[in-house]
Design goal:
Length: 272
């Protein structure tokens, strides 16, 4: 993941950071991926960022962007892709994880439909010392995928975990929320949108209440994006996770960390 098409008024993040572009479908939740539709429109248009359509690829020039943001931000990582797509080189994903470590004044939210690869690469890079400023999440569209992806997420070393049920296209059933710190739920938007049934949303809300997990209801979705609103039983549900304030280092220190990162990349490149 994670192609999140969103009305800016319900975006729960401050900025998006896209050091990778493109993806490919991995389960039924991807069938109407808006990012795929958008990117493929530009295939073959020389000079456009999506000149290569939705083919997954690293975007090295975006790597150091978080070092330039001088205030602490909620950063949604790879909002139109999946950082753990199998075609993205391990080495590049490792660099993205390293930026999140060094730019410690931000809160990074990483959402995937490929939790096996996330598990492997996060474990290899951070070891058994997960970072307090990194939220790892899985998205799931139905019971089968919720079950398997949450299990893998729970087994991945992380300080914070979250679950995104968007687009939810079937009853997700009973969710194991014991290690989950936040749940986002939403319906599908755009042409051919599949229906989100109110009972599924109520069931998830109830499970979140019982497990004391904050619940964010993003939208009903529908063929006309945003037309069906975002109230569930007459009210909005906008709970966000409580985030600990992150200390912002001095400008000199931020520049130093950026240089450390650039030097590390330069050394790796020279060693090849
Ligand atoms: S994983 Fe996310 S970005 Fe990739 S195809 Fe599926 S919905 Fe689109």
């Amino acid at each position: 993941m994670e192609a999140l098409e969103t009305d800016p008024s319900v975006a729960w993040w401050d900025v998006t950071w896209n050091p990778v572009r493109g993806c490919s479908r991995t389960s039924t939740g991807c069938n109407h991926c808006f990012a795929a539709r958008y990117a493929e429109r530009w295939r073959g248009v020389a000079g456009h960022p999506y000149e290569r359509g939705f083919d997954p690829r690293p975007v090295p020039e975006k790597l150091d962007e978080p070092f330039r943001w001088a205030s602490s931000k909620k950063v949604l990582v790879a909002s139109i892709s999946d950082l753990f797509h199998e075609d993205l080189p391990d080495e590049f994903v490792r660099r993205v994880l390293e930026v999140m470590r060094l730019a410690s004044w931000h809160h990074f939210f990483v959402l995937t439909k490929r939790p096996d690869r996330m598990h492997r690469l996060v474990r290899r890079h951070y070891g058994d010392e997960p970072l307090g400023n990194v939220w790892l999440g899985v998205s799931a569209e139905d019971r089968k995928h919720a079950r398997s992806r949450i299990t893998k997420l729970n087994g991945t070393p992380a300080v914070h975990r979250f679950l995104c049920l968007e687009p939810l296209i079937a009853d997700p059933g009973e969710l194991d929320l014991r290690a989950v710190d936040w749940v986002v739920l939403g319906g599908e938007s755009g042409p051919g949108a599949r229906t989100l049934e109110p009972e599924w949303a109520r069931s998830v809300r109830q499970q979140c209440r019982a497990a004391r997990v904050p619940f964010f209801f993003k939208q009903w979705g529908g063929a006309r994006h945003g037309a069906s609103g975002r109230e569930l039983d007459g009210k909005t549900h906008d709970r966000l996770p409580a985030l600990r304030q992150r200390a912002v280092p001095s400008r000199e220190e931020r520049l130093r960390r950026r240089e450390v990162f650039a030097d590390a990349i330069g050394t790796e490149t020279r060693q090849r």
